[in-house]
Amino acid sequence: MANDNLPFPSSIDQAIPSADEVNAKVDETAAKADRLVDRLAASAHSAVDALHAKAGPLVDKAQAKASSAAGTVQSKATDLGALEEEWIEGARTYVRDNPLTSVAVAAVVGMIISKLGSSR
Question: Of 17, 44, 113, 118, which residue has the fewest beta carbons closer than 10 angstroms?
């Protein structure tokens, strides 16, 4: 593109870099990008390590509390199941010992439920 008849090089000739210059710029840019990625990776690693150091004990504490709560709920459920069995057995014993009273109580409860149901 150079015009050999001109005594001075044109601005167009100066604006177009050679292949070696382009390759050098590409290599320089790649090296800068490589260093940037390395710095970002190091920052990310340190951030993750800091987060782990802070969150790790909190997660462990939450897990311990959840486990304790689950144990408490299981214990209470077992206690309630035993209490239910006691009440059912007590009711069975009462009905066996007092059959006429049990029938009378059942009849009264039935009449009350019937009255409540028919008033609507």
Answer: 118
What pLDDT was estimated at residue 7? Answer: 59
Three-class DSSP category at 17: coil
Please choose, from the candidates 84, 19, 75, the residue with its C-alpha nearest in 3D space to the C-alpha of residue 92: 84
Question: Cα 88 to chain center, whole Å?
Answer: 42
| Burial state string for 48-84 with b = 16 or more CB within 10 A and e = fewer than 16 | eeeeeeeeeeeeeeeeeeeeeeeeeeeeeeeeeeeee
Could you give the percent of the chain with pLDDT greater than 70? 86
Residues in the chain: 120
Instruction: List the domain boundaries for the chain.
Output: 18-118
The one-character DSSP state at 38 is H
Residue percentage of the chain with pLDDT more than 90: 48
DSSP 3-state of 55: helix
DSSP 67-85: HHHHHHHHHHHHHHHHHHH
pLDDT band of residue 59 (cuts 50, 70, 90) is: confident
